[in-house]
Amino acid sequence: MTSLLPGDPADTVGGVATPRALCVLAPNPSPMTLDGTNTWLLSEPDSDLAVVIDPGPLDEGHLRRVVQAAEQQGKRVALTLLTHGHHDHAEGAARFAELTGTRVRALDPAHRLGDEGLHGGQRIEVGGLEIRVIGTPGHTADSLTFHLPADGAVLTGDTVLGRGTTMVAHPDGRLGDYLDSLRRLHTMASDHGVRTVLPGHGPVLADALGAVDYYLAHRASRLAQVETAVEAGCRTAEQVVARVYADVDRSLWPAAELSVRAQLSYLEDHGLI
């Protein structure tokens, strides 16, 4: 959803990312969505079936471009999956389902079309393509990551972005859950062959382990800063944001406030403030 650190200069986003993953970039750039939402088209190279992850916003042109991208590869979209229910990822899902005749599977029943949902530990197979579902709550309660073992890649939605860091969308998102999810991704990168991050926003990350290490270090640093701000007399989330995020563009302060509220809740739950 959002980058809370200054990003690198603009990187190329969109196009072929791995042998099984192609990105179609949605035209919704903003400080909250970076270059726009990455809609992912997944398929085995020799299959005529494809899976789409996160159709993106309700933008008819974008949704039709995703269908066209599949058709240009000689493929038919057979299934739609959602990493989570935020509108920039899921708003277009119902219309995309109409265009493709597919079901929409998600963890949250509110975002499903069809009877089947998703949960961590599932294995999905479409046209020989294997997708493993990993529960990674924290950014939101319904956040999922999709693992492509054949490419050594994970599609992380907003759990790990291509630039900067994400927010913990309090109260739905919880920092403790988010840290556990990052540790889960760290284990996948260090012990289970995951090399590449295909994020929901921003460019592909070729060093999954380095990216997750950075996220964990950043979270620890921000948590310490929030604790220090409280000790210095900050009594509200707004006061903490003004102190801790003083170097961040003010347009991102509302998102920062959500993360601060999640951090304050975490510190309270652990008896640290």
From TrEMBL:
Every copy of the Metallo-beta-lactamase domain together lies at 36-201
Superkingdom in the source lineage: Bacteria
Instruction: Write down what this protein is called.
Output: Glyoxylase-like metal-dependent hydrolase (Beta-lactamase superfamily II)
Q: Which PANTHER family match?
A: ENDORIBONUCLEASE LACTB2
List, alphabetically, the SUPFAM superfamilies matched.
Answer: Metallo-hydrolase/oxidoreductase
What organism is recorded for this protein? Kitasatospora paracochleata
Tell me the Pfam families matching this sequence. Answer: Lactamase_B, WHD_BLACT
